[in-house]
Each structure stands twice: as C-alpha cells, then as structure tokens.
Design a protein that fits this description.
alpha+beta; Bactericidal permeability-increasing protein, domain 1; 2 domains; six-stranded antiparallel sheet; 3 helices; 31% strand; AHSA1-like_N; protein-folding chaperone binding; Activator of Hsp90 ATPase AHSA1-like N-terminal domain-containing protein
Length: 199
C-alpha cells in the first residue's frame, strides 16, 4: 500500500506513478529484552515506475518505464540520505523525465521508507524502557503527616474533706453514755474493794 500504485509526480509536463514492487530481500527481527521492545531491519527492494511526458499544449510526447531501487534499508538508516538508484528500462525518456525521477522520485521513495519504519515501530509497540515504566507506574499519593498525640489533662483526685462534727444532741448522748459507763465501772470497783475489806 505504501509503494504500489501511488502517484509520484503529477504536473502538466510529467505524470509519474509507481507500479509494482519487486520481491523484497532481507530480514526483520522483533525481540523483547529487559522490558524493551525493538526490532532489527536489513532489506533491499525496488519499485517499478511509469511516466508520461507532455508538451506545452498538453499533448503526450513520450512515455517510459523504470525502477527506483533501494540497495539497503536498515532500522537505523538516515532516511534523508537514503541511497536510491533511478533506472529507465524502456521508452524514449527525455532529460525532463530523468530529472523529475532523480528529484521527485527519490524524495517520494524516501518519504515512503520513513513511513514504513514508523509503521513497523508503532505496529510492534517499540518504545524506550523508561517511557514504558513511566506509563505503567501510577502516581504515588503523598502520605498524610501524622500528628503528634495531644496529651489530655488528667483530672485531679478529689481531696478528702474532714468528717463534719456530729450534732450537739449526739455529742450529749455520747457524753451521757460515757458517764454511765464510768459510774458502772466505779460501782463495780467499789463493791470489789468492799468485798476485799470484809474478807
């Protein structure tokens, strides 16, 4: 699709198009190493072309066929400096046709070679390892800053208050009770003393 049946040049004086691509020769290897997908390409190919030449009044004055040959295309080729051989196999091509194919024909085949390399890279997801790691990694969320625990003031223990003094009535009863106990003890002691004297 990139090389066959494509318009190379369309001007009032020269009209040129590609025809059929010769069987390409070479190899292409795609491999994955340490998470990095890449490929190696080394090939050569040729594309047929056919052109018509017109005069100033638009009348066909000649036609020719030929080939645009690329002797070496690699994965890291400098496409702008790619070698393209122009040949004319049949027809009565004049100088205008040869000049057109050496300029426009070579520029066209180089642009198609650039598109071919880009398609191979995108078709096999060829990318740098760093870019792959960054696209798969999710952004890390910042950890919340832990706040220092705030010590709450401990409630002070309630101070024990002195027991209130009993009412005056209770104090009187307590004194009377103690007096009675004292009298009983005195009576008993007096009795014992008297008994001892009698004896």
């Amino acid at each position: 699709e990139l090389l066959e049946q494509q318009t190379i040049l369309d001007s009032p004086a020269v009209k040129c198009r590609s025809t059929k691509m010769d069987k390409p020769d070479g190899e292409c290897t795609v491999y994955n190493r340490k998470g990095k997908v890449t490929f190696l390409l080394d090939m050569n190919f040729a594309v047929g072309w056919e052109a018509d030449v017109y005069d100033d009044r638009g009348k066909l004055v000649g036609s020719a066929n030929g080939k645009l040959a690329v002797p070496e295309l690699e994965h890291d080729s400098d496409v702008d400096g790619l070698t393209v051989d122009v040949s004319c196999t049949t027809g009565d091509a004049d100088e205008r046709l040869l000049v057109a194919m050496r300029t426009e024909g070579r520029a066209w085949i180089r642009s198609q070679a650039r598109a071919l390399l880009t398609e191979l890279k995108e078709g096999h997801n060829v990318q740098n390892k760093k870019a792959s790691v960054q696209s798969n990694s999710s952004p890390t969320k910042p950890k919340p800053v832990s706040e220092a625990p705030v010590s709450k003031p401990q409630p002070k223990p309630a101070q024990s208050e002195p027991n209130p003094a009993p009412p005056a009535a209770l104090q009187a009863k307590f004194v009377q009770s103690n007096d009675r106990r004292s009298e009983d003890c005195g009576t008993r002691l007096a009795g014992v003393t008297q008994w001892c004297c009698i004896a």
